[in-house]
Amino acid sequence: MTTTNIDFPELSEQQLEALVKLNPEYRQFTCLKQCQEQGVIVLLHNITDDFPLVIQAPEQEDAESKAEGEDTIEDFIPIWSHPQQAQYFLKHNLEGKAGAPQCEIKLLPLEVFKAQWIGILEQANIHLALMPLSADDDFAFVAPDIFRNEDAAKAAAEASAKEASADLIAATKEASQQK
Q1: Which residues of 57-82 are buried (b: 16+ CB within 10 A; e: fewer)?
Q2: Backbone dihedral angles phi then psi of residue 41, each to the nearest 5 degrees
Q3: Mind listing the pLDDT tens digit for each residue in 13-48?
Q4: pLDDT tier at 140 (50, 70, 90 boundaries)?
Q5: Which letter does DSSP use for residue 8 in this model?
Q6: Which of 175, 42, 167 is nearest to 103 (CA)?
Q7: How far apart are the C-alpha atoms of 17 and 154, rounded to whole Å?
């Protein structure tokens, strides 16, 4: 895996705790914007498998999505825009847990990700989890091709708005049919 050197500003524990409290949409916007501005994606590399950390979506949610006929996200790679964010996730969610993979933080140039990774992740139906920090599933997922957009944060926001609009239309139709 290619690595890159970049000077990241130091984040305090208070700043990291504040990030945990942000809603997933804001963390999504921040992660995508900063990754594009820096030209790098921060991820965890599973030392044992010699592959980026891939996490399976919780089975309960997966079963609910399948029952509702939605597209399901079965596997995802968590990404961050700062190494300390990845370290925070590692410390609070993986370190010291039985069966947890041994991981190290890696920086992946965005151009390498676009050229070599997007197609592979799409074929394997692996999505990106943007800036997960806590053990719960309170983070946004995006398709890996989001970084093909000149402004990934704006593209993700537009896609979320379209999805919310479609959900509202479907709920309105369902409510009117029940009358």
Answers
A1: beeeeeeeeeeeeeeebeebbbbbbb
A2: -110, 135
A3: 899 889 888 888 888 999 999 999 999 999 999 998
A4: confident
A5: P
A6: 42
A7: 25
The encoded tokens of residue 139 equal: 């983070």
Q: What is the DSSP string of 130-150?
A: ES--SSS--SEEE-GGGGGST
How far apart, in whole angstroms, are the C-alpha atoms of residue 74 and residue 61?
A: 10
Cα–Cα separations (whole angstroms), residue 87 to 4, 71, 124 = 17, 31, 26
Cα distance between residue 7 and residue 146, in whole Å: 25
Each residue of 25-56: b (16+ CB within 10 Å) or e? eebbbbbbbbbbebebbbbbbeeeeeebbbbe
In 3-state terms, what secondary structure has residue 84?
A: helix
| Single-letter amino acid, residue 86 | A
8 burial type by CB count under 10 A (0-12 exposed, 13-18 middle, 19+ buried): middle
- Terminus-to-terminus CA distance in the chain, angstroms? 57
